[in-house]
Design a protein that fits this description.
Blueprint: E1 4-10, H1 16-30, E2 34-37, E3 44-48, E4 56-59, E5 65-71, H2 77-91, E6 96-101, H3 105-108, H4 111-120, E7 135-137, E8 140-142, E9 148-149
Antiparallel strand pairs: 1-5, 1-6, 2-3, 3-4, 7-8, 8-9
């Protein structure tokens, strides 16, 4: 369980891959991300925006379309905002880009709202809940610290 951002990129032709990857790497380096490029000849690059977020990946080894999901709920809000800024650059380099942002930042660009949502997410280090919290999904209970307890019929309260 987590919150993040997903994207689907489509390119028009194989020749567009190199330009897209070059632009993506340039922007990622500008943002201070770690960049890991695969073996020469492969159209795949992995980026690490923050130690507590999942990797951002581009991989056009098998075609002109790429889909990716990046969980950002344990990283600072700045990381999520950087991924959106990175996607803004990607948008100018591809045929089409479809983004689905579970936190809504892609559409509203409201940094305060983004920070509040991340701070309130169970398990986030910035979560400052003062009241005991219990989360229940069917038979699974998710604690305020993100721990999942699969115990049926037991109530767990986090203080």
């Amino acid at each position: 369980m987590g919150l993040g951002i997903s994207y689907v990129i489509r390119l028009s032709a194989r020749k567009d891959v190199d330009a897209l990857l070059a632009g993506a790497v340039t922007e990622a380096k500008r943002l201070g991300w770690k960049v890991a490029r695969r073996t020469k000849g492969f159209a795949r690059v992995e980026f690490t925006p923050h130690a507590k977020s999942e990797q951002v990946v581009l991989d056009f080894s098998d075609g002109l379309k790429w889909e990716c999901y990046v969980k950002t709920n344990y990283a600072p809000a700045k990381t999520h905002m950087q991924i959106v800024a990175w996607l803004d650059v990607i948008k100018s380099l591809c045929k089409s880009l479809r983004v689905s942002d579970e936190l809504g930042y892609w559409k509203n660009r409201d940094a305060a709202d983004l920070k509040k949502q991340l701070d309130d997410f169970p398990g986030n280090a910035n979560n400052r809940r003062t009241k005991p919290t219990v989360f229940t999904l069917g038979a699974a209970t998710i604690l305020n610290d993100g721990t999942v307890k699969k115990m049926k019929g037991i109530r767990i309260v986090v203080k």
